């Protein structure tokens, strides 16, 4: 039983395969391919409201493509966004710092630029806390959690060492200075835990004044760019040497000058004078964006940079947890004290302005392929108008049903097959009738007139 059913299945599949790959079918498909041209049937609806809707949508699409895509977005240009850039920064200006008031120290760019060279960034130290230290034992900083003590028991050696300035020895020192700390609750004189490390520890409660004259410092930005697709290189030094040497950038009058004054930058990025003072005291982060937007269909001299400035860090009034920009660094030296070399260092906590320079840009040049592609997509989008109008005509309004009936043709396959069968039968009958009417004498002249006509054959008994 099972075997016979599987045989039937195989037979069915074979028949289906034969039907699909019937040579007659393939022939007729191939014939149709070279002899038939298909074109969609178009239904014309006489309705001014639908026609106007369609025209409005088409005009909108045309306007969008011509004005926005081709005009504003320059859809006829090939675009290169892979800009290659190099930025070199140099600061000039003499400042006055206070190590310990009233002792001042004159500083030049080698002192306040840390590090001396960075990639597309710059740090100008505007304030600092400097501590000369040596390896020794001393008391912990008063601001460190758990540093205050009453006895040695309070100075646990190994617990939470993250915020300590050295390795705690486990001793509570009640030195002259620390005995002045009074615990109000117990009225006992308190000490500070002793540490082993760099002494004395930094005291960041006493913050000196910001370096004077920072606002007059100037920053020279030297920027080279390349658009590799078009092999175009440009530099931001666009005017002659005398101009570039003495100019100061101004967004309105000197927007091509590559030298910026710190004061002008601060005034642009921060309008509040008090905030500006805080930026000098505690530091801040400023971005300078150089944007190259070049239309290479126009003269190359019009390919110029545009500078935009902004503040990146949060404002002091807003930030609660950590404000400004600072970091520590140390310079080390050794001193021979007649018996051995003693290690010393100067620890600096530097506050200052960090400038981040970003370079962006794109270049565009006429390209025929891009233009044709955009026009092609516009023609494609025009089809949207027909789609929208079809939706409106067929689904909205009272005549929707009528339009739908005219637009869509429903084919009842069985009826259609029956009709075709009947019509082919009728045709056969008519042909037979014609054949009956022909005589042998009629055949000869017809054959002369229509040499390629295939005349119906007479049966012997007809003659
Ligand atoms: N931050 C700046 N402010 C004003 N002028 C500057 C600044 N940096 C450089 N310059 C001047 O711009 C010109 C070009 O600078 P560049 O660094 O290419 O030359 P330089 O001779 O190495 O500069 P310098 O030795 O003066 O630092 C020089 O005249 C230089 O003095």
From TrEMBL:
Recorded GO MF terms: extracellularly ATP-gated monoatomic cation channel activity; purinergic nucleotide receptor activity
UniProt cross-references to InterPro entries, sorted A to Z: P2X_extracellular_dom_sf, P2X_purnocptor, P2X_receptor
PANTHER family hit by this protein: P2X PURINOCEPTOR (PTHR10125), P2X RECEPTOR E (PTHR10125:SF31)
BP GO annotations: calcium ion transmembrane transport; response to ATP
Residue ranges of the region described as Disordered: 421-444
Swiss-Prot/TrEMBL keywords: Ion channel, Ion transport, Ligand-gated ion channel, Membrane, Transmembrane, Transmembrane helix, Transport
Location(s) in or outside the cell: Endomembrane system
Protein name, per record: P2X purinoceptor
TM region positions: 48-70, 375-397
Species name: Didymodactylos carnosus
One GO term describing the cellular component: postsynapse
Family of the protein in this entry: Belongs to the P2X receptor family.
């Amino acid at each position: 039983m099972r075997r016979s059913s599987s045989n039937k299945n195989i037979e069915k599949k074979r028949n289906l395969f034969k039907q699909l790959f019937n040579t007659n079918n393939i022939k007729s498909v191939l014939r149709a391919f070279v002899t038939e041209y298909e074109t969609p049937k178009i239904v014309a609806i006489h309705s001014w409201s639908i026609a106007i809707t369609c025209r409005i949508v088409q005009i909108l699409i045309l306007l969008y493509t011509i004005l926005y895509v081709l005009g504003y977005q320059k859809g006829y240009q090939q675009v290169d966004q892979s800009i290659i850039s190099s930025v070199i920064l140099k600061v000039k200006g003499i400042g006055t710092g206070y190590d310990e008031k009233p002792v001042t120290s004159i500083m030049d760019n080698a002192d306040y630029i840390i590090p001396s060279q960075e990639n597309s960034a710059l740090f100008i130290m505007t304030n600092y806390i400097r501590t000369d230290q040596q390896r020794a034992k001393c008391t912990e900083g008063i601001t460190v959690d758990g540093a205050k003590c009453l006895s040695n028991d309070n100075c646990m050696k190994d617990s939470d060492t993250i915020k300590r300035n050295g390795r705690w020895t486990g001793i509570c020192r009640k030195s002259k200075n620390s005995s002045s700390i009074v615990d109000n609750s117990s009225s006992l004189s308190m000490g500070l835990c002793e540490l082993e490390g760099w002494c004395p520890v930094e005291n960041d409660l006493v913050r000196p004044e910001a370096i004077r004259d920072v606002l007059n410092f100037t920053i020279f930005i030297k920027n080279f760019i390349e658009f590799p697709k078009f092999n175009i290189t440009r530099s931001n030094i666009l005017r002659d040497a005398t101009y570039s040497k003495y100019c100061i950038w101004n967004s309105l009058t000197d927007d091509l000058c590559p030298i910026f004054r710190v004061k002008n930058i601060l005034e642009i990025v921060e309008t509040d004078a008090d905030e500006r003072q805080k930026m000098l005291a505690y530091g801040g982060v400023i971005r300078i964006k150089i944007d190259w937007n070049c239309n290479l269909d126009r003269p190359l001299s019009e390919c110029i940079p545009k500078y935009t400035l902004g503040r990146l860090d949060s404002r002091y009034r807003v930030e609660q947890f950590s404000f400004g920009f600072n970091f520590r660094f140390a310079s080390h030296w050794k001193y021979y004290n007649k018996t051995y070399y003693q290690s010393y260092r100067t620890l600096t906590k530097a506050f200052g302005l960090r400038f981040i320079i970003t370079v962006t840009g794109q270049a565009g040049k006429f390209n025929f392929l891009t233009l044709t592609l955009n026009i092609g997509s516009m023609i494609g989008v025009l089809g949207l108008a027909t789609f929208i109008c079809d939706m409106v005509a067929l689904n909205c309004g009272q005549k929707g049903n009528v339009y739908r009936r005219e637009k869509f043709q429903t084919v009842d396959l069985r009826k259609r097959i029956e009709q075709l069968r009947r019509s082919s039968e009728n045709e056969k009958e008519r042909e037979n009738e014609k054949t009956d009417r022909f005589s042998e004498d009629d055949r000869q002249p017809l054959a002369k007139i229509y040499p390629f006509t295939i005349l119906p054959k007479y049966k012997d008994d007809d003659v």
